[in-house]
Specification:
alpha+beta, three-stranded antiparallel β-sheet, Arc Repressor Mutant, subunit A, single chain
């Protein structure tokens, strides 16, 4: 029995391009993966967990929305620490946020911001979507 899938096998399983999986890895979306040199492998248990997550009812979405309305804006790490008991994985919180930014109409907007003014490091900040403003997201996965 195979315990890992390579990029081609996972892309075929999900009916998508391997390029999509490559892009997801750059923005920390999707299942956990292992990288040995240039070889990328996805543990089958992590793939199945991610599939279950995507099929779930996303019950935690309301808590994340309430937190963002209260906080105004927050990074993924802040949301992860504050919501759902602070025990949910980064991938699960990201999946929730991705669902919220892609909903119709969007409930959350994502925009790039400097981590601090003295550093060139950028992060994604999430905030509640205001219906009266035009929404332009600089999040690379929202351009599809």
């Amino acid at each position: 029995m195979t315990t890992t899938l390579n990029e081609i096998e996972l892309a075929a399983r999900w009916g998508m391009s391997p390029k999509t999986l490559q892009r997801w890895r750059t923005i920390n979306v999707g299942p956990e993966y292992l990288k040995l040199g240039k070889k990328v492998m996805y543990p089958l248990t992590d793939v199945e967990d991610y599939e279950k997550l995507i099929r779930s009812n996303f019950a935690g979405i309301e808590e994340i929305l309430l937190y963002l309305r209260h906080a105004g804006e927050a990074s993924l790490e802040q949301i992860q620490a504050a919501c759902l008991g602070g025990k949910e994985s980064r991938a699960k919180i990201q999946a929730y946020l991705q669902r919220l930014t892609r909903s119709s109409p969007p409930k959350v907007k994502a925009q790039m911001a400097l981590l601090d003014s003295a550093s060139p490091v950028m992060t994604v900040l999430y905030s509640p979507f205001a219906e009266d403003t035009q929404w332009i997201s600089s999040h690379p996965d929202c351009a599809d």
